[in-house]
Design goal:
Blueprint lengths: L1 H45 L4 H23 L4 H26 L3 H23 L10 H21 L3 H11 L10 H13 L9 H30 L1 H11 L3 H8 L6 H39 L4 H14 L5 H16 L15 H25 L7 H43 L4
Helix pairs in contact: 2-3, 2-9, 3-9, 4-5, 4-7, 4-13, 6-8, 11-12, 11-14, 11-15, 12-13, 13-14
């Protein structure tokens, strides 16, 4: 008995030591993973102002990876291909910035737009409610709900009307200011009508004094705008470098993360990395093409119904980019299109029966047509099965992302959900295939 016991003890002790080592490794791995997750979360939260530039640089690199492989197959050296893509990336960014800058209204145009919008809104309201110039009369609907409608209109007017400083600038631009042409007298009449609507006609008498006072603030505002531009430049300068470094990476990042995985999970981790990499690439390229097609569709259709080409391009670009966020692209197209239809003075439509009075109906038809095209053609053909998410998951993801990270979270919510979904499904599938769970 004593000999048998003495023979078994070394083997038992070895098993205990082996089990203890496995337990220690497991604890170390779990603690390290928790620390990494907590540190990563803290860094993401602390550095959230630069998240969007980093992500955009990363997305651009993912989109360009197939082009880099194509250059390599064509016999172009990898370094030359990277240099070509990096130069093209810079040129595209500069072109987009210039085009967007030319489409954004300047100070004079903003004042005119606000004046036109308020005037047309009140005129359309009177026409729809059957009111005369004195505000008398009205339809049966207005007689029952006049106080509610008037309160809502007053709240809109208080939001869009020109404040004291803007009135002073309007009067300066009226006669020509800052190398800009004078404001047409028609809009000055709108301006006066808006003052009557706001019951603030007496303030027009002080407009000249206000114009002088606002001039004193211009220098300070120019300095403020310069500071804003410089801060934005310091944040966004990181984007092209992220793009460049990811193109220069030749698998080092992937090898680093795979090296952290235990040997028994090596093949599983490779499968997960490849699957996620392919899912991200397919999703990004599909979304880019979809957004481009939606934007071009809006530009063409808005031009057909009589929008100025500048407004059609501006609304098409905004709605096309917003298409990456489900539903938002259509909402932006309808809101911006309806706002322009409200202030349109005249319409030069290819379709003869479209006028300034029914232009808003044409806007709704255009948005509906693009929605049908997107859901019936663009998404199934271009995006395909890259994204298969329940609408509730999409809604909660967008709301949660915007609450946590603002605009960056709004944009990145869906790509993040796609990546997490792909990681989880692939991981569990591979673990089952290798009989690890």
């Amino acid at each position: 008995m004593s000999n048998d016991s003495g023979h078994k003890n070394p083997e038992t002790n070895a098993d205990i030591r082996s089990s203890s080592r496995r337990q220690t490794r497991r604890i170390v791995f779990i603690v390290t993973a928790i620390l990494v997750v907590l540190t990563g979360g803290f860094l993401v939260w602390s550095l959230r102002p630069i998240i969007l530039p980093i992500i955009i640089g990363t997305l651009a690199a993912y989109i360009c990876f197939p082009l880099l492989k194509l250059f390599t197959r064509a016999g172009i050296p990898r370094g030359a291909g990277i240099l070509l893509l990096f130069g093209s990336f810079f040129i595209v960014i500069i072109i987009i910035a210039n085009q967007v800058g030319s489409l954004i209204p300047d100070e004079r145009e903003k004042l005119i737009l606000k004046t036109r919008f308020q005037y047309k809104l009140n005129e359309r309201y009177k026409s729809f409610m059957g009111l005369d110039d004195a505000g008398e009369g009205g339809t049966m609907l207005y007689r029952y709900f006049s106080s509610d409608f008037d309160n809502f209109l007053n709240s809109v007017n208080s939001f869009i009307r020109l404040d004291n400083e803007e009135r002073g600038k309007f009067m300066k631009y009226l006669d020509g200011y800052n190398n800009k042409p004078p404001i047409p007298l028609k809009y000055y009449e709108y301006y006066h009508k808006n003052l009557d609507t706001n019951h603030e006609g007496t303030e027009d008498k002080t407009a000249g004094d206000l114009s002088g006072k606002t001039a004193e603030k211009d220098a300070g505002k120019d300095e403020f705008h310069f500071t804003v531009v410089m801060n934005a430049f310091k944040l966004w300068i990181i984007m092209p470098f992220v793009f460049l470094f990811l193109l220069l990476d030749n698998g080092e990042i992937k090898r680093f993360f795979v090296s952290l995985v235990p040997n028994r999970y090596f093949e599983v981790s490779l499968a997960v990395f490849d699957k996620v990499d392919k899912a991200i690439g397919n999703y990004l390229r599909g979304i880019l093409i979809e957004c481009s097609l939606v934007g071009v569709s809006y530009i063409v259709l808005f031009s057909v119904i009589g929008f100025e080409i500048k407004m059609a391009v501006m609304i098409g670009l905004a709605a096309g980019m917003a298409t990456a966020i489900p539903i938002m692209g259509f909402g932006i197209a309808f809101v911006l299109g309806s706002s322009y239809a409200l202030i349109a003075e005249s319409v030069s439509s290819i379709i003869p029966f479209i006028t300034s009075h029914n232009l808003i109906i044409a806007v709704a038809v255009v948005v509906l047509m693009v929605m049908v095209l997107d859901n019936g053609v663009f998404q199934p053909v271009v995006v395909g099965g890259a994204v298969s998410l329940h609408p509730l998951v999409v809604f909660i993801g967008i709301m949660g992302g915007s609450m946590l990270f603002g605009f960056a979270g709004l944009i990145l919510a869906i790509p993040t959900i796609v990546v997490v979904k792909e990681i989880v499904t692939t991981l569990f599938r591979e673990l089952k295939d290798y009989s690890l769970i």
